[in-house]
Amino acid sequence: MSRRLPPLNALRVFEAAARAESFSAAAEELYVTHGAVSRQVRQLEDWLGIDLFERRGRRVVLTASGRAYLAEVSAALDRIALATSEQLRATRAQIVRVNAPTTFALRWLLPQLSGFQLTHPAVEVRLTTSDEPIEKLGDECDVAIRGSQQKSAGYAVTEFLSEVRLPVCAPKVLEAQPIHEVADLAHHTLLHTATYPGLWAEWLAASGNPGLAPRHSQQLDHFYLTLQAAIDGLGIAMGPTALVALDVKEGRLVFPFDGPALPAWRYCSYVREARLEDPAIHTFLAWLRELGQRFSHRA
């Protein structure tokens, strides 16, 4: 059904002027000139075919028709304002702010997010990275992800992904110098990360080769640099299976050994208990758990 509506801008100007019974007050509220208010009110009166105000010199007073019309228009604008406010709140509720460690975000979460956005286009994930304790994040995020469980009162903690560590390298490294057994690592460069200095020693001990000396060792500052160095063929790294899964699938990395596997991180999500029923957060957590099950490995 077609609605017969007056000029909506004129309606808004009338409502502001009628509330104060002042064109000057309406002009100040709406950031327009006194003349603009007068013209909009006159346009509405002409459209309705009635006088809404009596002009008394510089003053204006609502007519009986104007007063009755104001009651209906004001109520209608209030309903529009309320509906708009509720819609804006609903829209904001579709934003999920996620905070995760940098390497995890780069190597695992970001490559998967396109799949989430395709299946949940109404939910926007805003990702930040840090390793700060959960309590320090405060209200800066809705979902925090960390590689180990932390004691955090008032948070719901859910483990969603576990992984193990295995040696990993680019295929061209094996093409240049094949590996048939652990002893062959003596002809290769082993990549180390400054924050995880003992990984190779631990793995070599678990494999029964604690004294093996590689051809060369190279240390990098951050773990994501170590993984990138492995992809670029600089040497062999100790790779967490979940964080290199996509690279292995797409042929950028390979596992020269099936084991032994060292235990690595067990990733958990942290959400304030009061936010668990938020629909967007609930949707993201369900996706995170489902995805994590497909990538999980345990030693």
Please give a structural write-up.
This protein is α/β, with parallel strands linked by helices and 299 residues long. It has two domains: 8-91, Arc Repressor Mutant, subunit A, CATH 1.10.10.10; 93-299, 3-Layer(aba) Sandwich (D-Maltodextrin-Binding Protein, domain 2), CATH 3.40.190. It has eleven helices and ten strands. The strands form three sheets. A six-stranded mixed sheet has the order 4-3-5-10-6-9, sandwiched between helices. A two-stranded antiparallel sheet has the order 1-2. The protein has a two-stranded parallel sheet with strand order 7-8. A hairpin with a 2-residue loop joins strand 1 (53-56) and strand 2 (59-62). Helix 1 crosses helix 3 (34-48). It is rod-shaped, with a radius of gyration of 32 Å.
What descriptive keywords fit this protein?
D-Maltodextrin-Binding Protein, domain 2; 6-stranded mixed beta sheet; LysR-type_TF_proteobact-type; transcription; 2 domains; 299 residues
Secondary structure elements and pairings:
Layout: H1 8-20, H2 23-30, H3 34-48, E1 53-56, E2 59-62, H4 64-92, E3 95-100, H5 102-119, E4 124-129, H6 134-137, E5 143-146, E6 155-168, H7 171-176, E7 189-193, H8 199-206, E8 216-220, H9 223-231, E9 237-240, H10 245-249, E10 262-272, H11 279-295
Parallel strand pairs: 3-4, 3-5, 7-8
Antiparallel strand pairs: 1-2, 5-10, 6-9, 6-10
Question: Care to give the gist of this entry?
Answer:
The chain has helices spanning 8-20, 23-30, 34-48, 64-92, 102-119, 134-137, 171-176, 199-206, 223-231, 245-249, 279-295; strands spanning 53-56, 59-62, 95-100, 124-129, 143-146, 155-168, 189-193, 216-220, 237-240, 262-272.
